[in-house]
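Running co-folding for magnesium ion.
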Amino acid sequence: MMEDENLVLLYSKEEIAQKITDIANQITKDYQNKEVILVGILKGAFVFLADLMRNLRIPLKIDFVRLSSYGSKSKSSGEIMITKDIDLSIEGKDVVIVEDILDSGLTLSFLIEKLKAKKPKSLRSCVLINKTERQEIKIEADYVAFRLEEGFVVGYGLDFDERYRHLPDIYKII
Ligand code: IMP
Ligand code: MG
């Protein structure tokens, strides 16, 4: 294979599955008798969202946004744009944003403001990994599977230069 980076296992697929079960139980409890719209951020969150939704026991719909991202670098440019907006109407709906990684906080806070303008009844966020070392904007996700002090991670939907998204476990690049 043409893969140059050194990968070290960080979270196994079993650990990921366990965390997702826990979060899904919490969301199921918090939204009893409500219909939720999950809004996944492409591309990174699609694997997480796929597993999360199959563990939820509430009525739900899913939608996706695509935001301009880091490109092929591993650092944020600071500029964000919506390149694919949601298709469903979220006005008056209970909405949960599903994001892969909360890093600087720029992406999530940008999307929260954009979605708030569409007047949902409620808006929460659910992230797979909350990184803490580079947080610029003080923002707390409502549901967090893993907390990570430092490092760049791949697998389970997460990429480095668009690679490694297909790996079932999550690895740290060293
Ligand atoms: P933020 O705007 O700095 O919070 O950036 C969050 C976005 O950066 C995530 O949606 C990821 O796509 C990307 N990102 C941040 N850290 C990593 C990482 O360790 N691996 C893969 N993608 C990452
Ligand atoms: Mg990315």
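Result summary
The chain is about 20% helix and 30% strand.
Residues 13-149 form a domain with the Rossmann fold fold (CATH 3.40.50.2020).
Job closed.
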